[in-house]
Every structure is written in C-alpha cells, then in structure tokens.
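FAQ: What does the model actually see?

It sees only this:
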Amino acid sequence: MDADAPAPVHLDKVMDGLATNPAVPANLIGRLVAWRRGHGTVARRPDLTEDMCARIIATGDHRLLHGLALNDRLPGRFRVLLAAHRDEAVRSALVVHAATAPRAMLERLIDDPAPQVRRGLAQAHGTPPDLRARLATDPVPEVRAALARHWTQAAEVVRRALLTDPEAEVRAAACSTSCARGPRPAPPADLLPTLLADPVTRAGAVAHAVLDADTLRRLAADPDASVRVQVFARQDTPEHVRAEIHDALHGLSCPGDVPGPDADDDEAFLRWYDDVAARGELRTLRLPWVTADPLPHLDSPYVAFRVSAALGEALPAHAVARLLDDEEEIVRLTMASAAPHLVDPATAESIERRYRRRDKFTFWWDEAQVLTFPPDTLRRFAADPEPRLRSFAPRDPDLPPELAEKLASDPEDRVRRAVAPHRNLPLPSLLRLLADPSGRVAEAAGASPSLPVGRMEWLLTRAGL
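And it is asked to produce this:
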C-alpha cells in the first residue's frame, strides 16, 4: 500500500510515536516490545496485558523496565517484583506512582540501600505517613533534606526534627520559602527565635515571626537578599521600607552579569546566584494576604502583588479586565489561567498575540492550552503570519481537510507537529510527515490514531520487528 510514500528519516522517533499510539492493535504491541533503540515508551502504555508485562520484564532491557516501572497501570504484583530489581534506576522509577503502589512494595523500598530510591519516597506525596516519617532519621542528609522540602504538612514531631537537624542543608530545606507541596505551616513558636538567628533558616522564619519595628528594620537591611525579600512580602512592612527593599533588590546583579571563568572563587558566583534569585522572587512571590483582599492591589507598583491579586476569588469584572490587560505578561497569564472562563475570545486572542517567551516565569504558557477559541478563529489562525498561532489551528476538531493539508506543509516544525495527529489530515500528508526531517514531527505522525494498521505493520517490518 502507498508504495510511493517516502521512508522515515527518523525511524527511531516514528517508533517512539507508534509506541504511544492508542490505535495500535494488541497483536502489534508485542512486536513493539522487541524495539531496543527507543526510550522504552511502549512499556508505559495503559493497555498492557499481564502477559505483556511479564514479557517486558523477561527482556531485562533497562529502558523497557524503567518505562514499566513508571507505568501507573502496572499491576501490584509486578511492582513488588521490580522492587527487588538490581537496577536502582528501575526501583527509583517505581516510587513516582507511590500513591497507587501496594504497601508491600513501599515497605521494601523504604529501607532500600540506594539513597536515590529513599529520596524519591521522601518526595512522593503518596508515601504513607508512617513510612515517610522514618526518613526524618535517614543517615543521608540529602534524603532528609528532600523530605523537609517536599513534605510540608508533616506532623509537628517530624517538622521539629527537621528544623533542628544538625545539617544546615536539612534545616534550610525545612524552613524554605519555596515549597514544592503547597504552603508551609508556621514553625513551632518556641523555635522561631533560634530559626531567626540561624542564617540558613532566617528567611523562612521572617514571615512567621512577630517583629518589633527595630528588628524589622534590621532584617530589611540583612546581607542575605532572600531575607529582605521576605520582609518585603510581610503585610505589616511599612510602605516606605517595602519600596526601599524593592529598589535595592532591583539594583542587584542581573542574569546577564554572571561572573566569568576568571572569578577569584565560588563566592562571586554564589553572590550572583543569590542576587538573581532575589530579583526573580519579586515577581514570583505569592502573597496570601493580597489574594484574600485583592482589590486594593490591582494597581500596585509591585508585580508580585498584582499576580497575587489575580489569584483572588470572585474578582469583579472590572478587576479581571484590568489584570488581563496588565503591562506585565506574568500578570496577564496568571489572570487568564486563574479564570479562563472569564476571558472573552477577543481578549484571549490579544493575550496570545502579545505573548513572547521571554523568561523562566512565563515559558510554561508556551505549551499550555489554557484559553479556548471558536472554530472560526482557529481557522483564521491557520493563515496567520505567527507560527505559534498557526499551530493552534489543529485544536479545531473539525478543521477542514484542505486546511489540515496546508498546515502539514508549513515551514515551521511546531505547526507540522501540531497537525500530524489530526483526524482530518489526508492520508498522503500523514505519510509524508512520517518522513519529515524533524524528529518531533515524525514522532507525532507515528502517534496519530489515523495511521492505517497496514502502515503500522510496514513500519514494524522496516524496523526489523
């Protein structure tokens, strides 16, 4: 069939796409298991039978076993079996889905000889609390630090142990202002004086301590920029002090000022890193007291205050409109993400047209599909000069075949990748995308449910399977 269709340039990528294709018949999945040059993607399929799982384990192939360990549909008996595997990377992968794992597997791994595995359990939200608490006395500081950083809602006895740990790395993680699992509760009141006196926990303690005017003023001039950021964020900080801190932090090192290779020692680099991080925090702080009462802060001169206001509940229409049109992109995107149902089509298009991937604070929007557009807008995007907007057109499930075919010949990889799985893409165009010079496009074509079974068999044969 289709004898004139070009052969894939990136056969390995096509096979990776095929491994995720939901339309692959069961009798072909077994042939995919024999593929050894990919990433073991087939082992993560949700439709694997127990016989297929057993066959994958029998291969002993690292990538397949790693993929299987990451499969959240893997039956419990296979997880327990893999928990005894000699490869610590396989055992570590098992803990990613600790929430659905059998307790027998977790009990075995909690005492695993590899710190990497125990660190994974410390980070995993699904690890049972009684097992997780045991890691507070783990002999490896990195494991205890991971527990402190990720288990923000641990029982007080565990938090006390971590806040008073002999290792500075652990104490810093236990009092970190950056929480991987939601807001961190206030430290026990009796520990606050000690935490404020400790340089590695001072920044985390500032938000919770009762400060007199002199102490607040002293902390506002602390040599550690992260401490000053936390003073800036306090509700009771006088406005003139907040402004002074903001101006001073903006005068610190910029990302482009990274010390060169001739710097005397690591101190210069660490100072630069801390300064850049502090400048970034001024934009990324999330202030609950602002979110709880957002209206007074809609026109705040501070980006973090306007971002926090955008997270407020039941904002009136004028406030939503104001924040959706904010001069700072992070504010607009936060507001749109917090309430996409309040974004009308014209505003949605304006936000997308103004979007530019400028920094680490907004790059997540590049792949997000937060806003929706009516079919007529999506079809208009198909001819837009901006490649990013052209890549939105395939979101229309009824995109006409002639438009899909046009997008399949687009000069931009991201556009061809977006249209490759579309159900209305004519078969000749899909077959050409399988041979696309971009590996990511070829992979997307391999994952297309519209790919005929006969072409799947042809690909498997070409791969020697």
